[in-house]
Input
Amino acid sequence: MPQLDTDLSAVGAGLDALDAPSQEQRPSLRKRFLRTAVPPLIAFALLLGAWQALWALAFWPEYQLPSPGSVWAAVVEAVETGRAFEVLWTSVSRAVLGFLTAVVIATPLGLLIAKVRVVRAAIGSLLTGLQSLPSVAWVPAGILWFGATPSTIYFVVLMGSVPSIANGLVSGVDQIPPLLPRVGQALGAGRLAAARHILLPAALPGYLAGLKQGWAFSWRSLMAAEIIATSPQLGEGLGQYLHNGSALNDISMVIAAIFLILLVGVGIELLVFRPLERAVLRARGLTGAL
Amino acid sequence: MTATLENPTSLSDVDAAVTLSGVRKVFGHGPAGVVALDGVDLTVAPGEFVCLLGASGCGKSTLLNLVAGLDAPTSGRIELTTSRPAVMFQEAALMPWLTAARNVELPLRLAGVKRGARREKASELLSLVRLVDAGHKRPHELSGGMRQRVALARALASTLGSAEEGTPGLLLMDEPFAALDAITRDVLQAELVRVWRETSTAIVFVTHDVREAVRLGQRVVLLSSRPGRVVREWSTVDCDEPAVIDEITTHLREVISGHAAA
Output
């Protein structure tokens, strides 16, 4: 009966219109700026104010607590002489290279641990243990094995970040709803195709969290390695810059170095990981945390 | 009037999409093993719509998994003359990171179909389930009924799209509408019948709802519980629906109350 059929399609279209979740309007650019950028700026200003006030009260001698102005001067000086860029480039390029290598090593490792029971039983807990081992602990061993060379630094960075990334991937895979791999199997996915088209994308939120942590760990480990292992062979990274400031008893330089280390950490988080995470979660309708 | 098929395998074997003979499935080993299915004989003709009906624990879903090849029978034989059977579950289980159209494309992609052909087939199937305008939407932007229709299109893609032209399809559905509200279920049942007529795919539909089974199927197969066996079949083509529903309900109740005594 054609009459019934058109009725049905109308009912179906009506249901679709009624039942489909309504789209949330994204707030305007200005509103989003007010909501996300203003609170941290205010917090930062308050912190600066407190610092300036403490310095003005002169509780501590100048060589322990410098004024915000003198730290700023140290930063400006480093920038003007071009030293800041050299130091930043040395460290950031090392961290990025180390991090990318860690991703290449940790991804298949994480998949193996997540999917092969024997491997998980054998090294699963070891990997979690390694995550809680401060990577500074590897510096002395690294120096004995590789000398004060870039190899030591990369070794320490890898030991710091590989466990985080692999563990993130494992927990991402563990949290996949069991129905999805079954659907994949029913749709005709073999083991490799299932990993490529179902497991990895389904585990992406957990994997991304692991990557974020892995970056933080490689940056941290790099700083530890650079502060401890200093030699002309290694060039000057942020860690050595900090070390030099300490050796010169120059508290402004030390604080400036810490400021730069923090700046890179926050910058990479804001420019790389936050937008990535947002895009991934928003695409899946997981907007609760944004 | 009611036509009861006394011999379940009356259809000739040559003209069958699926043939199950003496299928038995035991979970676990030894005395602790649970017999889920025992001696199940069932034949589904190409293009036929068969409803498997039974209470909880009758092994309906197990039977479907065996036919889908997701699990292997302990003994007995399952023969398919169709392309890869497609499965639809109670939940739509769409990939949350893919749009509706990409979800429909997924089985074609796994089968190695080229991008252009994939797109074309996917939009064809989406318009079959009346969702051609929703192809760019993500699963979380769709209602439950729309998601289930995308899942239907995806299932059809896996059984029709990846096979050579002319191979009949087989669609296995495991209570696909059980989680939907009554109005949506009603519309989707009618949609399913329409899609089935247009595609001439054989469908094995598992449900515990007698009305749904009688409304949708050409044939209703009642399974007993623990172990699952074929108790009786009814043909529901041109039948007196209320009478058949009453009769099947009576039988289903008998099967269930048999377990109270045991």
Observations:
- The beta strands of chain B are 3-5, 18-27, 34-44, 49-53, 75-80, 86-88, 170-174, 202-207, 219-223, 230-235.
- The radius of gyration of chain B is 18 Å.
- The interface with chain A takes residues 68, 70, 84, 86-87, 89, 91, 93, 95-98, 106-107, 109-111, 130, 134, 138-146, 154, 158, 162, 183-184, 187, 190-191, 194 of chain B (CB under 8 Å).
